[in-house]
Amino acid sequence: MIDALRERKFLQFILLVIVFILMCMFVPATDGSWLWRLPPLFANFPVWINDSVDYLMFDWWLVDVYDPDIEEYEKQPVMRQITRGVSGFVLFMIEFVREIILGGVKTIVTFTGWDWATENQWARWPGLPWTVVAAGAMILGYALSGTGLALFAGFTFIYIAVFGQWEPSMQTLSFVLIAAPTAIFIGLVFGVLGYKSKVVETILNPILNVAQIMPHFSYLIPVMVFFGIGDHAGAIATIIFATPPMVRLTILGLKKVPPEVKEAGLMSGCTDWQLLRRVLIPTARRDILIGVNQVIMQCLAMVVIASLIGAKGLGNDLLIALNRLRIGLALEIGICIVLIAIVLDRLSLAWANKQTDYFADQSFKERHKHFIWFLIAFGIGVVVAWIGSFIFKEGFNYLYLVPHNKGITTGPFWQAGVDWLWDTFFYTLKGFNEWFIVDVLIPVKNAFLGMPVIATFTLAMGTGFIVGGIRSALIVGGYLLFIALTEWWDRALITSYLMTMAVIISGFIGIVMGTLCAQHPTSSKILLTWCDTFQTFPSFIYLIPVMMLFGVTDTSVLIAIVVYATIPAARYTVVGLQSVPEALHDAGSMSGVNRFQRWVSIELPLSFPHMALGINQTVVFALAMVVIGALIGTDDLGQLILGSLSDRQGVGNGLVLGFCVAFIGLAIDQILRTWADKRKEALGIE
Amino acid sequence: MKLRTPKLIRPLVVAGCVSLMSVAGVAKAADSTQPIVIPIHNWSSQVVMAYVIGGIFEKMGANVEYTPADTQAVYESIRNGDVTISHEVWQSTFGKSFYNAMAKGGVIDAGTHSATTLEEMGVPTWVIDEGLCPGLPNWEALKDCHENFTTPDSGGKGRWLEGPQSWHGDLMPERLEALGLADKWVVKFAGGADALWTELAAAKKEKRGTVVFNWTPNFTDADGFTFIEFPPYKDGCRIADGGDGTCGSPKGWLKKAANYKFPKTHPAAYTAFTKVDFSTTQIGQMAALVDVDKLDHKDAAAKWLADNEDVWMPWTK
Fold it and tell me: For residues B277 and B54, what is the distance between their CA atoms, to the nearest angstrom?
């Protein structure tokens, strides 16, 4: 019996569950009991963080700074001067790109001052006509990849102009054009450092983990306190959010470079820099490019959130549209965001994939033909805009700039679609919704809240122990202990309940869809494109129709989470199934299995580790959405994170709550990842 | 022609700088040319009013900049000087954030609009017309009609959909308790204003009764919204202030806030800003230009400014 237990992990797990259930049944729910709930020893933690931040930002190392506007010296803390310096620089960069496209006065002001710019009203930088920008994008697409990309880029920019979203889109674009390259650059630098030094990697790892899982809302307030409000703050929050995958994938890619390649480089006499620049990075290109793709997707996924701390552009317009329940308008804006994401992604991929042709012997005209085309397009665009100023005498020159919200709109069409959805499905869904809430959600929620703290610890640490030994058990226990000692354990249980439900549903849908689509290359390609689309499509938009259909209930919250969290489950399933070696398929077929048997006994077990990572990512995505779900109305950690925006202790609360959410994710990550690694080893794949 | 080469600008910039240095000493009494930063939130009247006030400042020769900002977090930004003013400070929703920032220093109170605000639970007027709760708006009617206001997750009780808990804490649950309604009604906290409006739209389609937290002036006024009349508010009647909690919300103020440097840097603009005073009707007009006439926010502001010169002109004097 004991031997069997030692051998079979499955039996150990059953025993654990039995112990867990017994504890749930017999530990009484008394308030003073430590077995039921731990005392909130960390309750003051947020206050400490807050006080330190306040001290750092407002009281530490004061210096006299002369403010010419009020003609007085003011005590200003040094820290604030430094962070505002950074802000100013980032803002200048964003404004500079923005004004190249849209025109304005800020860049001129930077060099001359407001006084001068106010006196000389003629000194305004004119924007480019939209036709020129669109043509420029087309030429760029053509130069990098060919006709296909040129047409797509052209379509995107014309769509944006025609639908009257030109100004906000270009504001968003200029913001992304600074945030994304910065994130890519920082990611590359840290990735390379992490690759070169084991110490750096060990330090980076936990930071990346937390940064990736922490809900972005929770660091909005710290960013705002340190860097102020505006495009720069949005860009900085976006960079924090978008950099971790880049670092991860850079390290991964560089590690995969075969030693032979590296040695060949060294033998050719490369210096360190040359080795990196000419040998390592180009060889690791595939993984680094996935990193670039992720950075761009993450940047555009942040557009709406960033607008909460002052980023101008589509995100802000989207929030205003949603506040009036104008779903059609919001949808058009959402499509603009997705289109920009895809164009930038494809352009950057094409640029990175383009091989330099060292042997071409081209004339000046040949080498610069794309630039010359652009000059021609520029000339034509300017002339057309000039002619336009004669045609559209009153008001707006549509050939120069299609004004905001004065393009054509398909709003009424989408609105009708939502109405139709409501009329057709509401009463059917109502029954389902009632059943789901009364018979599934409420019991599950009560079960989660009815867990004594000792039982939760036993289950989590026990699972950790079975999967990864004492080390995993301690790590998982440590994460949970932090949450249990804050005053938000019950809230965290509700978050876990929402996340668990969402992960079960998303995991199921994702794996089924992934499996079906992976049967054919075309369908898997379509699925992966859908994944990209939904990852950048602002989740705020479908909150409203979902709320219309399911009311302000947990069902709506779950659906919103599931839509987003299914993406990684599906993506990793496809990748996992594709990574099963052909030879094994053939071996299976030769042993006479049919398609279904092959799937059950060969493909599924072999791709299980990959799928586990997919589920891992599903957990991360679900936790990220918990805060967005809070916009519908929940009583979990997410709601408190939203609340911290108005709180006096906002910085501390936001961060500690963010850590709580991140630690839930990390505890699960620890278990799933350890399990996946062991399985991979056992199966002998990478 | 709209395009100019940068080459042309450079010598002019230098010339401008030189000429400016000589004037700088004299021109100090006037407003600074640093832009006045006005926050933009996500509801129509606020956005239009931002452009209206910005328009007034611009007429006075000031530079103005608009920045999107979160409604609660904006007070911290005003305190730090990243945003210069806020022109819609609602008593019960933003009062806490406003006073918190004021206590830390850096925010000043720049006067009050004559519009009074009310933030209270209420029902869409059609709920009363349909007879879903006879006797409303008097609160005592709530004792007998909760069956018409149940939802799947309310456990058989009627549901009050309140704003996020961060807006007024446990005020509404405490009020239900104090008025003896707690066995018939339960409070659900929505996540944000969007959720409230969606609930209004969905309930109307379904013809289902709903009690929602709302405020006036708001765009919902146009569709008909009736606030429930609770026992009148007296100072200290709320449980949080030591009272018994059996009272409704007060008629609230609508204030203006500014960064403490604003009066020094822009004395003229600040004086005008303290005089800015909108009534409920005017705020309604601004919202209607966008929500009913479907104008763009900026166009709505321009139209309002053009139509109401006699209102705002005196403020600039």
Answer: 14
- The helix/strand/coil state of A418 is helix
Q: What is the pLDDT of residues A241-284, one digit of tens each?
A: 999 989 988 998 898 889 999 899 999 888 888 888 888 988 88
Cβ atoms B274, B128 nearer than 8 A: no
**Residue A288: burial class (beta carbons within 10 Å; 0-12, 13-18, 19+):** buried
Give the domains, in start order, of chain B with CATH numbers.
30-116+253-316 (3.40.190.10), 118-250 (3.40.190.100)
Say which residues have a Cβ less than 8 Å from residue A17's Cβ, sequence separation at least 6: A459
Interface A–B counts its CB contacts (< 8 A) at: 207
Q: Which of A552, A626, A628 to mutate to test the interface with B (most CBs of B within 10 A)?
A: A552
> Which residues lie closer than 8 Å to A513 by C-beta, 6 or more apart?
A527, A566, A570, A573
Condensed to tens digits (0 to 9), the pLDDT of residues A365-404 reads 777 888 888 888 888 888 888 887 777 766 677 777 777 7
Alpha helices in A631-649 (DSSP H): 637-643
Residue whose entry in the numeric block shows the structure tokens 């840097």:
B265
Q: Rounded to whole angstroms, how far apart are CA atoms B176 and B159?
A: 11
Q: Which residues of B touch A102 (CB under 8 A)?
A: none
Q: How confident is the model at residue A472 (pLDDT cuts 50, 70, 90)?
A: very high
Residue recorded with tokens 């809070």: A630
Asked if B76 and A629 come within 8 Å (Cβ–Cβ), the reply is no
Mean pLDDT of chain B: 84
Q: Domains in chain A, please, with CATH? A: 1-29+452-485 (no CATH), 414-450+486-683 (1.10.3720.10)
Nearest CA in chain B to A418: B202
Q: Do A382 and B197 touch (CB under 8 A)?
A: no
Mind telling me how many Å the CA of B80 is from chain A's nearest CA?
8
Highest mean pLDDT among A77-86, A231-240, B158-167: A231-240
Contact assignment for B73 to A221 by CB distance below 8 Å = yes
Q: Among A114, A120, A441, select the one facing B63 at the smallest CB separation.
A: A114
Distance from CA of A81 to the nearest CA of B (A): 12
Q: Which residues 6+ apart lie within 8 Å of A122 measured at CB?
A: none
Predicted confidence at residue A648, as pLDDT, reads 62
Beta-strand (E) ranges in A248-392?
none
In Å, how far are A16, A460, B214, B230, B288 from B220, measured between CA atoms? 55, 49, 8, 20, 10
Output Rg (C-alpha) for chain A, integer angstroms: 28
Q: Using CA coordinates, name the residue in chain B closest to A118.
A: B33
Q: How far is B181 from chain A (nearest CA, A)?
A: 22
Q: What percent of chain A has pLDDT over 70?
A: 97
Comparing B129 with A575, the larger pLDDT belongs to B129
In whole angstroms, how far apart are CA A190 and each of A187, A234, A237, A245?
5, 22, 18, 11
Q: In this structure, which amino acid lies at residue B144?
A: D
The 10s digit of each residue's pLDDT in A312-334 is: 899 988 888 888 778 888 888 88
CB contacts of A650 in chain B (<8 Å) are: 73, 76
Residue of A nearest to B98 (CA): A646
What is this structure's pTM? 0.86
Query: Lowest mean pLDDT: which of A277-291, A387-401, A645-659, B115-129?
Result: A387-401
Contact A642 B28 (CB under 8 A): no
- Residues A665 and A659: their CA atoms lie apart, in Å, by 10
Give the bridge partners for B90, in sequence order: B254
Cross-chain CB nearest to A307 (options B68, B153, B164): B68
What is the rounded distance in angstroms from the CA atom of residue A465 to the CA atom of residue A540? 39
Instruction: With CB atoms and an 8 Å threshold, state whether A645 touches B1.
Output: no
**A118 with B63: Cβ contact below 8 A:** yes
Contact flag A316-B68 (C-beta cutoff 8 Å): yes
